[in-house]
Amino acid sequence: MTNRHKFPEDRVHYTWDKNPQPVLTIDSGEQVDFSTREVADNQFTKSSTTKDIDTLDWAKVYPLAGPVEIRGAEPGDTLEVEIVELEPGDWGWMAILPGLGLLPEEFPDAYLRTFDLSDGQFIHFNETIKVPIAPFLGTMGVGPENADGETIMPPGTFGGNMDTRHLTVGTKLYLPVQVAGAMFSCGDAHAAQGDGEVCVTALECPMQASLKFRLIKGKSIPAPQFQTAGALTPKVDHRGFYGTTGVGPDLMEASRDAIRAMVDHISSNYGLEPKDAYLLSSVCVDLKISEIVDAGQYIVSALLPLAVFQENG
Q1: What's residue 154's pLDDT?
Q2: How many other C-beta atoms can be found within 10 angstroms of the C-beta atom of residue 52?
Q3: Which end of the chain is more exposed for a tag (fewer CB within 10 A), N or C?
Q4: Vertex 22, ends 21 and 26: CA angle to 5°?
Q5: Which pLDDT band, with edges at 50, 70 and 90, does 312 fall under?
Q6: Contacts of 215 (CB under 8 A, 6+ apart)
Q7: What's the burial of 262, exposed, middle or buried (CB within 10 Å: 0-12/13-18/19+)?
Q8: How would you write 195-228 as a 3-class SS string?
Q9: Which strand (E) or helix (H) includes residue 51?
């Protein structure tokens, strides 16, 4: 039987630090239960409104549970993290944060919405739009080499704030160990997100998470890798998708063009204000590189799952 540990709920850190001291030390093959805080570290509540963004303390954003030391882990090894259980809390939030996201110029004003997640199956975006809950941890990473108080937001070859929504229950994540003990941390849980997290937030929420760790000695990988347990979008595949595209020589600008077109499509066809169409794009629209090899003209597609619209049912 796998040894199972409980990570203390009161121990978090907000930066990647040099020579971190482990809060918990485990052996390869053991499991840890985490209770992670939402990414604003309880600065928002179910009753929060847009004005609460004005007082957000950014030094307390990205509270991570960790570090967890895995005995015997050394640089050059690989840490396998199996996602065993994920249970979102009963509420969450999304926001447009000024200066951030894919379209900061089009959406310069702050905007916050909170959501009841007690349904357990769907995020009720409005009366006719339901987004399936598909939880994952936005941040999972080992301690980065040469860290010295770096912020959590940018990911790296060590993992970290990857915001990769396919890291759901049953998936195995592989991380390249960069420091002795691996020093794993996690947090930034999401109830749902589209590929790209285009407005800069997903459905942010607290999470109960159980992860099982296995050390693979002597295997070196250059950056995170993962293996999913099955289909990538099983909860929305049954109704088809609507796609918009961006075309041009710059992948970032093509991504922006695809999302601009998607926000316009959602606003024009489903009666949402542009700011809500932007939020919906962040929580369920997938950005994909559709073409990258033809004479320097790239195509990025934004794919909207039609299953979220109840009038299609």
Answers
A1: 95
A2: 18
A3: N
A4: 155
A5: very low
A6: 28, 70, 72, 73, 77, 78, 79, 80, 177, 182
A7: buried
A8: CCCCCCCCCECCEEEEEEEEEECCCCCCCCEEEC
A9: none
